[in-house]
Amino acid sequence: MNPKMSTEQENMLHNIGVVGFVALEMALYLDTHPTDREAMEYFNHYMRLKNQMTQEYANKFGPLTLSVADNSSKEWKWALQPMPWEGGC
């Protein structure tokens, strides 16, 4: 366990990684089976889940990607959190 991270934060990162892996595998499958509607539904489900989980993580601990970085704020929080090599991930 990273001493700078809470168990909740580590669990959230792990779960985002698992769901992201499933979505990536489905994308690779769809590259060779583009007409498989069931696979497309499965992919869409896991992408929605990953986006939701990533947004929840960003709300609690800061953005993991620029797509969930809050640009409505007056400060750039992306640069205020520790970088991965500083124990941020």
UniProtKB/TrEMBL annotation:
The chain crosses the membrane at residues 12-30. It comes from the Bacteria. InterPro entries: CotJB_dom, Spore_coat_assembly_CotJB. Residues 11-86 form the Protein CotJB domain. Keywords: Capsid protein, Membrane, Transmembrane, Transmembrane helix, Virion. It holds the Pfam family CotJB. This is Spore coat protein JB. It comes from Kineothrix alysoides.
